[in-house]
Amino acid sequence: MDPLFPALTTARGEALRFGERSLTYAELATTAGDLAERLRDAGRVALWATPSLETTVGAVAALLAGVPAVPLNPKSGDSELTHILGDSAPSLVLTEPGAELPSALAGLARHDIDVRPGTDTGAGALPADPDPEAPALIVYTSGTTGPPKGVVLPRRAITSTLDALADAWQWTGDDVLVHGLPLFHVHGLILGVLGPLRRGGSVRHLGRFSTEGVTRELTSGATMLFGVPTMHHRIAEALPGDPELAKALAGARLLVSGSAALPVHDHERITGATGRHVIERYGMTETLMITSVRADGEPRAGTVGVPLPGVGLRLVDEAGTELTEDGPESVGEIQVRGPNLFTEYLNRPDATADAFAAGGWFRTGDMAVRDPDGYVRIVGRKATDLIKSGGYKIGAGEIENALLAHPGVREAAVTGEPDPDLGERIVAWIVPAGPEAPPSEEELATLVASNLAPHKRPRSVRYLEALPRNDMGKIMKRALPRQ
Questions:
Q1: Does the N-terminal or the C-terminal CB of the chain have fewer CB atoms within 10 Å?
Q2: Rounded to the nearest 10 degrees, what angle do helices 243-250 and 211-218 cross at?
Q3: Which residues are in the AMP-binding enzyme C-terminal domain (predicted)?
């Protein structure tokens, strides 16, 4: 049986660092091992997922104990927290000492995690790993189409996805990862914390993302940087006036972006200033990681690379028939299967059944095209980013990239709205780089038509001060003003 943390009792040196506080592997094994013993009969536990040593110790302890952990977003409102707690029914909440918990958690037993760096009493034998199918984490989705659903992730999904990424990224125990991602979701917690710990490497968490923090860590031993597009956009904006940041990024082994598409324009600006390419990967809460540009492969901006080892991927049309031709006009929904998949939506057998097609293929709801050599290009969500206009199927993503190439565009989102003639008309939502003189509707339509095709040009342009985004930096198109 493959242990989740094979390096926990063998690796030496620093495992975790949050600001001025850190834990070695020996300290982590002792602290998490002691807590695991207390959690052994706890059933499920909630985890108040602040960016702290306590959160990471709590997650590791729950995994060692074989107790499913439910990470909670500290920014969630009372109604959402009440739903999650009622649905998952944890026996207690793990939190850092002194944390002020909202009223929704008032009736839940609280356990403050005691983390004292420097304490190494010599960890005893750690618990044997549970069955690979045993639930490890229950991560709640964003709930854009109703209350959040609890995605039950088994241990084999975590180990398989982290090992596939190790293969794709040549990730080893010598790597030091830096990031400032939240720890209540897949990107920050599973990839950004459990990933380094599984390899025997280390992670340095910035607490709050800043380009100064990135520069500091990459110039003092960090080899990898994880971020969401908003973070990489801020890096791209800062690079022209920050030679130290450019130098730090140029020395990194791997720069990774995920959780949403990174605009091609930001790819080009970062590569131009540093000589380094940002690698994109693609996944979901239900699937963990599906594809990635490989460290030993061709960097190709605008793509999420090729399927990871062990992951099956196909594109299907609206009737569910697999597409047999690749190319820019063969748009299909991504369906996947493999050991990386979740087990079920907690307490939702109906939703679980609806999520799968015959043969065990999970319906992602993401639309994509595929290059002849297997590179996947995401064009958007089936529900919000696939626009059917004038008989064409058009992905919002490629239009957004074309718009972002305009120097007068800071942010862009593309949606479709009903049109009596075209079926749907393309609408561009623009945050101008200079609000006093935004690019005109005609100018942007001409840019898209000349770079893509005339039928992909926006028929309407609407200007905003900012686009609505969630905590992971994804644009929330359903929150855009309705006309």
A1: C
A2: 50
A3: 398-474
